[in-house]
Amino acid sequence: MDTRSRIVDVASRLFYTQGYNSTGINQVIKEAEVAKASLYQHFPSKEDLLVEYLTVTSDLTRKALQLAIEKQHTPKEKVIAMFDFLLKNVRQNDFTGCNFLNIASEIPTENERVRAIIRNQKDSIRRMFADILKPLRKEELADQLYILFDAALISSKVYRDVWPVKTTKKIVEKLI
């Protein structure tokens, strides 16, 4: 793994498990086993490293959701697959919530650079729901499904349990 990738890998793990504010640059440097100059060569600031983490995570999440959707045939099956994707993630032992919602709760309101990346990721989920529902002419449900999707994520973090996603999935099955 090259230096840049190692830095991003370590920072991603730490930002997700510890939070952005609790992760120091010196810890990233130590755990990635890189020189301080190497880190700053690739990422002039901690925020630049955060932006890379969010960008990479967004891309990986979108691809994983797309893969889950593509395996299904009907719009209803595709929507349910998105909630099954959530269920799979919530069941992981290291689940500490949504990467993006976690960061959104940590950064200042006026940090528009980071908030724009988070909004873009959330908008991509909303668009996925709208695209899936288009054949049914029910695109207006996309926002409702998106709200349920994020609510299930948040509730699963709060309760450290899968029941919020399972319950939300039952609601969604009735909506479509």
The proportion of residues forming helix, as a percent range, comes to: over 70%
Number of helices: 9
Report the portion of residues in β strands.
Answer: under 5%
- What pattern of helices and strands is seen along the backbone? HHHHHHHHH
Give a description of the structure.
There is one protein chain. It contains nine helices and no strands. With 176 residues, it is an all-alpha fold.
List the SSEs and their pairings.
Elements: H1 3-18, H2 25-32, H3 36-42, H4 46-70, H5 75-90, H6 99-106, H7 112-133, H8 141-159, H9 163-175
Helix pairs in contact: 1-2, 1-4, 4-5, 4-7, 5-8, 5-9, 6-7, 7-8, 8-9
What key phrases describe this protein's structure?
176 residues, mainly alpha, 76% helix, elongated
Report a brief summary of the structure.
The protein has 176 residues and is mostly helical. The protein contains 9 helices and no strands.
